[in-house]
Amino acid sequence: MLSPTPLCLFCALLLCLPLAVIITITSPTTTVHDGSGHNLVPDLDPPPKTQQRFSSKPLPLPLHDDDSLFRAASRVNSKLPPGSPKKIAFLFLTISPLPFAPLWELYFNQTPKDLFNVYVHADPSYPYDPPFSGVFAHRVIPSKPALRFTPTLASAARRLLAHALLHDRSNYMFVLLSASCIPIHSFDFTYKTLTRSKKSFIEILNNEVGSYDRWAARGKDSMLPEVALEDFRIGSQFWSLTRKHAKLVVGDELIWAKFNQPCVVWDTCYPEENYFPTLIHMRDPRGAVPATLTHVDWNGSFDGHPRMYVESEIGPQLISRLRKDEPRYGDDGTNGSGSPATKQRRGFPFLFARKFSPESIQPLLRIANVVVFKD
After folding, report:
1. Cα–Cα distance for residue pair 301/235, rounded to 1 Å
2. Pair 271, 153: CB distance under 8 Å
3. N or C: which end of the chain has fewer CB within 10 A?
4. Is the preceding omega at residue 130 within 30 degrees of 0, hence cis?
5. Residue 259, SS3?
6. Where does the UniProt annotation place the signal sequence (predicted)?
């Protein structure tokens, strides 16, 4: 038997190479990074096995390409995994360290880890030293600067929603929080309130003072024809959205394109307080309870910021008062503006509160277990 010559072997290798390439090309699993080198595996429905194996067009997902990120997040499965508990996604939007991290640690440490997820959008230009730790360690998503009077704060919230959707299919409710927010109930109380609801909680207010100025902040008629003045709404920056509405937000391009324009009148430019309530009012008003469950006191506000509670005010009486206050209900798509009768029937409690000074952490920790987390 003749031994093959080197030339024959080389020719055989060339003939086999294309087949080897076809067999080995696969569609890679799209991943979202948390900014720490850890991969957060998303919940994209995989294609059929044969298609996945031989596909030569993998879905790219550049981490800092928002358009690709939002498109991928809008395609995740809407349904929760069978038999999996509902989870709450806590979305922290911050441009500074989290002064109340020790309080949140106590809050989360008292509950099973399979009932929640934490995500942080942190300004990448800020030197976070020491870095986030404990329950916040490795939870920072790829972030961009978020500046007041610009669309970037709303962009950051959309980015948080997208990463939370991609990360865990069990995320049922998505709660946006700031660095100055604290819980005013136990996790168990909060969990039951949110997961028993089939609706989002987002303030949707109509005919507010200054509505026209906010609507026209990007220039006269710049919102038309997609967003007419009569469809424009105002609400709190902080909300709790269902999975359905989280997908609605990340999948929206038409309405977002209007709010993503730069403002020509900066001091009436609050996209983070207008885009989300306007979108849900226009697309699915009956899918929301038109109120925020994050308490805020606008009495004595300064420069567009609500009242800040200082260290000397912290005590059982303050927590009790915040709990007893009633949310303001707006437009739920049924009667224009929530009637007193409708408001009374709802009866949802505040679950969080802002705005607290960083020095408040110590007195809050002292009353955490006996007051804050005791329902």
Report:
1. 16
2. yes
3. N
4. yes
5. helix
6. 1-22
- Topology adopted by domain 66-78+85-372: Spore Coat Polysaccharide Biosynthesis Protein SpsA; Chain A (3.90.550)
Q: Which amino acid is at 169?
A: R
Instruction: Name the H helices within 261-360.
Output: 271-283, 316-324, 340-346
Give the integer Cα–Cα distance in Å for 185 and 175. 15
| Secondary structure of residue 188 in the 3-state scheme | helix
Rounded Cα distance between 139 and 143, Å, is 11
| Through-space distance between the first and last CA atoms of the chain, rounded to whole angstroms | 88
Contacting residues for 306 by C-beta, under 8 A, at least 6 apart: 296, 297, 298, 354, 355
3-state helix, strand, coil in the chain (%, to 5): 40, 15, 45
pLDDT score recorded for residue 17: 41
* Amino acid identity at 251: G
| Structure tokens, 224 | 């038309």
Nearest to 247 by CA among 91, 32, 78, 62: 78
- pLDDT of residue 137 exceeding 80: yes
Whether 218 and 212 have beta carbons less than 8 Å apart is answered as no
Asked if 160 contacts 93 with a C-beta cutoff of 8 angstroms, the reply is yes
The neighbouring-strand residues paired with 89 are: 117, 174
Tens-place pLDDT, residues 176-235:
999 999 999 999 999 999 999 999 999 999 999 999 999 999 999 999 999 999 999 999
Contacts of residue 245, defined as CB under 8 A and 6 or more positions apart, other chains included, come to 200, 202, 280, 284, 287, 288
Q: Which amino acid is at 331?
A: D
pTM of the model: 0.82
**Are the CB atoms for 323 and 184 separated by under 8 Å?**
yes
174 alpha-carbon distance from chain centroid? 6
